[in-house]
Specification:
Distance between the termini: 19 Å
Radius of gyration: 26 Å
Largest sheet: 9 strands, parallel
Strand order of the largest sheet: 5-4-3-2-1-11-8-7-6
Helix content: 25-40%
Structural class: alpha/beta
Number of strands: 28
Number of helices: 18
Shape: globular
Bound molecules: beta-D-galactopyranose
Length: about 650
């Protein structure tokens, strides 16, 4: 655990001293002390300085910064700089530049301009990782290794084509099996030799879903291989934990369950894409996934913004109080600290308008005052280190289902995997419940309620697992267009969803009937659905609500089925948010799941971390007025008893005594 080395929870961020001079470094030392910084991520984008020409290293400047940080009591999360190859590298190895699906070869001038499958890139990445580990592997300041940065660049070049073929041969063994798996009998796509197979580049119309799904799987494996090569090069010289920072929305084409098994500590970056309460809900969505990927073990928030963040076409500024609330929201859900991108706002360069802990305005600023306040708060929470979070509800998450739902040619363009997961999580968050994410084939018996919001692809083993879960006493909610295709993305025949799940649900879906954009369909219980409807019949299930409109009038829309000792529900449309919240509340009640703290109004979030002898309730008030607590308790942040949470404020209540 890095908290052992740090002596508490982590607080700090990406530190790029190479952008500044000595006078600023002195001020950095002072301000880091003032803010309670104990961990700095160094070297993320420093390749061009560390290796100014191929094979010639310059470590002197980094030696000096590590010594300075160490002398100042700041530990180091040392990055390998491989997310941003220097210009000399791309000029020497133009074949290592990424190629887009339409054949455009990108060039340097930004960052992440590499092709992961290029042998020259992989060799250079291993070499610099190894050189850094050899030099700094047992440096006293070193607390953590940070491999690369947000592995994300995809590539469709010839190296990728060759590596893809190797992966496909290993998976399918013969072209005959591959042709059957991809259904190449359709549209005359049959492959007669391995060389005929290309990455799914730009083509005329719909691409083959088996081809695109396998490409996503292949590239995820390629990312994990690139990461583990660097990790192993580091481990040869260092015993410090190794991580790589993940982005939890759909930005990276990675199976995060698989990558998480390869890191010593799961770490994520999180930048909410909406303001206010939506940002708070999105923070919980990210943190709950991070904890789940970590298998319930502590994890680390590696990056967040202090204020403005680039997000698509606009920039969102954080509201006063959000630096603390968002930091504590991550810590509440299992993060062993709160780090930021970046320490000091750059005066030049591509991200000069991205916020930082020390803004352009300097330390005499709202942002830095809030950073200090947050650092002080995190400093008081050291006793939470190593404690865990227990959830009684799980939302199912599977990269295969996500990638398959990105296939061309699906019946609706309004089926977005992460939006569906976010919506399910949001309804549970609004209900005051902490949610885990779980793989459909994982052991689910510890959950009282399991929700499958967008499980388009479901393996045979997954379908069997869900049936077993319900049969053994669980409450299962399966939502529209789930269990539809198998692991090859082939449609299930004889009625949807996959047979064992169909039996558990006691229904048979005969036909999918997507709704027109903006169309709303009515249900007999007064609720409404959009986007989707299905023609289904009940076998053993009971109809809770039927469609009342159009061709489906009188057909079941929402059903429930007794399945062994449990109950399996099926929802065949996308309910309006308020109706969906009602259904979720009913299922929580039936499954016996209560909010973490009873009696809190909407917009007040509570999460419990459990230690061996005591537990801590983190309560975050996202509202503009103070909120009373059910009873007065000891607050770690103020060090005294509190009976309310101030407007926009936070408390951390200890129950029990620290050993
Ligand atoms: C992260 C990235 C950082 C920085 C930040 C800005 O995704 O890792 O390097 O670019 O975004 O939001």
């Amino acid at each position: 655990m890095i908290t052992g080395r740090l002596g508490g929870l982590a607080f700090g961020g990406d530190y790029n001293p190479e952008q500044w001079d000595e006078q600023v470094w002195k001020e950095d030392d002072e301000l880091m002390r003032a803010a309670g910084v104990n961990l700095a991520t160094v070297g993320v984008f420093s390749w061009a300085l560390l290796e100014p020409e191929e094979g010639r290293y310059d470590f002197a400047w980094l030696d000096a910064h590590l010594e300075r940080l160490h002398a100042n009591g700041v530990h180091v999360d040392l990055a390998t700089p491989t997310a941003s190859p220097p210009p000399w590298f791309t000029l020497a190895h133009p074949d290592a530049l990424p190629v887009t699906p339409d054949g455009t070869r990108l060039t340097h001038g930004s960052r992440d301009t590499y092709c992961l499958t290029s042998p020259a890139y992989r060799t250079a990445a291993r070499r610099i990782a190894s050189a850094l580990a050899e030099r700094y592997g047992d440096h006293p300041a070193l607390a953590l290794w940070h491999v690369h940065n947000e592995y994300a660049t995809l590539c469709w070049c010839e190296h990728t084509a060759a590596a893809f073929r190797v992966w496909l041969r290993a998976k399918y063994g013969s072209l005959e099996v591959l042709n059957a798996a991809w259904g190449t009998a359709f549209w005359s796509q049959r492959y007669g030799s391995w060389e005929q197979i290309l990455p799914p580049r730009a083509t005329q119309w719909h691409r083959n879903p088996g081809h695109t799904l396998d490409f996503s799987r292949f590239f995820s494996d390629e990312v994990i291989a690139a990461y583990t090569e660097q990790r192993d090069a580091i481990r040869a010289h260092s015993d410090r934990p190794v991580t790589t920072n993940m982005m939890v929305p759909g930005y990276q084409n990675i199976d995060l369950w698989a990558l998480s098994r390869e890191v010593d500590l799961v770490s994520i970056d999180h930048y909410p894409d909406a303001p206010g309460l939506d940002a708070a809900a999105d923070t919980a969505f990210a943190a709950d996934r991070a904890r789940s990927f970590a298998g319930g073990k502590p994890w680390l928030l590696m990056e967040q913004g202090t204020s403005t963040v680039y997000g698509g076409d606009r920039v969102l500024a954080k509201q006063p109080g959000e630096i603390l609330r968002h930091s504590l929201a991550h810590i509440a859900r299992g993060s062993e600290g709160a780090l930021f991108f970046q320490w000091r706002q750059s005066k030049a360069g591509a991200e000069q308008w991205h916020s930082a802990m020390v803004p352009h305005a300097g330390p005499d600023s709202r942002v830095f005052r809030e950073v200090r306040e947050t650092g002080a708060a995190v400093g008081r929470l050291g006793e939470l280190a190593g404690s865990t979070v227990t959830a009684h509800v799980a939302v199912l998450h599977d990269s295969d289902a996500w990638w398959a739902l990105n296939s061309d040619g699906l019946p609706s363009s309004e089926l977005d995997y992460h939006s569906a997961l976010r919506r399910a999580h949001r309804a549970l968050w609004d209900a005051g419940v902490v949610t885990d994410f779980a793989h459909p084939e994982a052991e689910l018996s510890r959950y009282r309620l399991v929700v499958a919001p967008a499980l388009y692809l479901l393996s045979d083993a997954g379908a069997e697992n869900l049936r077993r879960y319900a049969e053994n006493g669980g409450t299962l909610l399966v939502q529209h267009f789930s269990g539809v295709v198998d692991s090859l993305a082939h449609a299930r025949l004889g009625g949807y969803p996959a047979a064992p799940l169909r039996e558990a649900l006691g229904i048979r879906v005969e036909e999918y009937r997507p709704l027109a954009r903006g169309e709303r369909i009515s249900l007999s219980d007064g609720s409404h659905g959009t986007t989707w409807s299905e023609s289904l019949r009940t076998d053993s299930a009971e109809t809770i609500a039927a469609y009342t409109d159009g061709a489906l009038a009188g057909s079941p829309a929402l059903t429930t089925n007794r399945c062994g000792a449990g109950t399996a529900w099926y929802l065949s449309t996308r309910l309006d948010a308020v109706d969906y919240a009602g259904l979720v509340a009913e299922l929580l009640e039936a499954a016996g799941v209560r909010p973490v703290l009873a009696g809190l109004p909407p917009g007040v979030e509570a999460v419990t971390r459990d230690g061996e002898e005591c537990r801590w309730h983190v309560v975050l008030n996202h509202r503009a007025e103070p909120v009373s607590l059910p009873s007065a308790a000891h607050d770690l942040l103020t060090g005294g008893p509190v009976g309310e949470v101030p407007a926009g404020g936070c408390v951390v209540l200890r129950e029990g005594t620290v050993p």
